[in-house]
Amino acid sequence: MNFPDRFSNLPAYAFPRLRALLDHHAPGGEVVHMTIGEPKHDFPAWVTDVIVENAHLFQSYPPNEGSHALRGAICDWIARRYGVTLDPEQNVMALNGTREGLYNAAMALCPEQKNGQRPIVLCPNPFYQVYMVAAISVGAEPHFVPATAATGHLPDYASLPPEVLNRTAVAYICSPANPQGAVASRDYWAELIGLAEQYDFRIFADECYSEIYRDAAPTGALTVARDMGAHPERVVLFNSLSKRSNLAGLRSGLIAGGPETLKHVKQLRNYSGAPLPGPLQAAAARVWADETHVEENRALYQAKYAVADQVFAGVQGYMPPEAGFFLWLPVDDGEAAALKVWRDTGVRVLPGAYLAQGKPGQNPGENYIRVALVAPREELQRGLIRLRDCIYG
Question: Which residues form the Aminotransferase class I/classII large domain (predicted)?
């Protein structure tokens, strides 16, 4: 039996690697999980009622692109949040989680060649692993651009040489950034969009952490593209209810962009997609329409920022995140630090190198650990104090 080689060189995924590192060692105390970005705050109680009220929709195949009500609610949210008016028939589609969209958008939109050469897909480094796999799946070359303290923890795509940019078909960018919590400013977006206009590539804007922030709401790529008068197909937006509304299991995501972009993505999904069940679409429409629970959720994370800032005050290199719910903590060696914290305290964190690419000495995540601020506040505080005293004490 033969198997394809195209994915044979993929590194082990982050969490199997973490289990291999930690699980044959006993924890050094009560276990506190700070590895995975799975929200723990309560979702709105009325979501269950909406699902029950619409349970009869389980009898029917759901609309592939999302119900009209769901697409309308998504467009209304984009208008409120980004000040951009979109047509629910032409500019948006519901996703079964953003990972599906981030992958399938590359499948539908990345050309086989760019200027007569193998296309390049730009990825920040560290990065969400689906970016790399999407690039490999379409036969493109993933090109990893370091997002380090020197670049404000966002990739400096403008510094790439013309021979790379001329081959670039897609640039993934995550703002607020996972794992660093950095936010792309209006000027950053304007520079990137201008670069994409000059070299004719698409921007895949992964803004899934956009509703968790300290003070000001992060600027959105669609807003800046509209203000610049950029090509209507230039920016493709992705977002979801997972972080915004603590509904990771609902799997309600969105993709928004130009009409030709959505035409191609919808066509692929007609053959390969798995739409949300009808009752879940009904619930998602209600959730996208409500901001009260989002404000309450954001306040809980803002309180956790305050806890982290207090615990790590005075720790050299501590960078308070601008947004999102991760700490990106500097250490001498991420793997060694994660193992020490687990064995000494029972706190479970993720080595930064598992979220990045590069050989030892060239991996921009190897001197960091990622810490998820998702546990209840008191548990979070205990875990952060244990971690601080173990690593920085």
Answer: 31-383
**Does position 189 have pLDDT exceeding 90, yes or no?**
yes
- Check residue 6 and give its pLDDT: 81
Domain range for 218 is 46-290
Distances (CA, A) of 247 to 40, 130, 205, 252, 312: 9, 20, 21, 8, 30
* Residue 239 and residue 307 in one domain: no
Q: Position 261: which residue type? A: T
Boundary (domain end) residue, out of 266, 290, 314? 290
pLDDT at 5: 82
How far apart CA 393 and CA 370 sit, in angstroms, is 18
Assess contact for 364 and 123: CB atoms under 8 A.
no
- Percent of the chain residues topping a pLDDT of 70: 100
Burial class (CB in 10 A: 0-12, 13-18, 19+), 8: exposed
In this structure, the answer to whether residues 282 and 365 fall within a common structural domain is: no
Containing H/E element for 179?
A: none
Strand-pair partners of 203: 171, 235
Percentage of the chain beyond pLDDT 90 is: 95
pLDDT of 393 strictly over 90: no
Looking at this protein, which amino acid is placed at residue 93? M
What's the total number of domains in the chain?
Answer: 2
Q: pLDDT averaged over the chain?
A: 96
Does residue 12 register a pLDDT over 90? Answer: no
- CATH number of the domain encompassing residue 330: 3.90.1150.10
Domain presence at residue 8? no
Residue 357 belongs to some domain of the structure? yes
What is the average pLDDT across 45-74? 97
Residue 109 has, within 13 A of its CA and on its CB side, a CA count of 33
pLDDT at 11: 80
For the chain, the farthest-separated pair of C-alpha atoms sits apart, in whole angstroms, at 59
Within this chain, do residues 134 and 222 fall inside the same structural domain, yes or no? Answer: yes
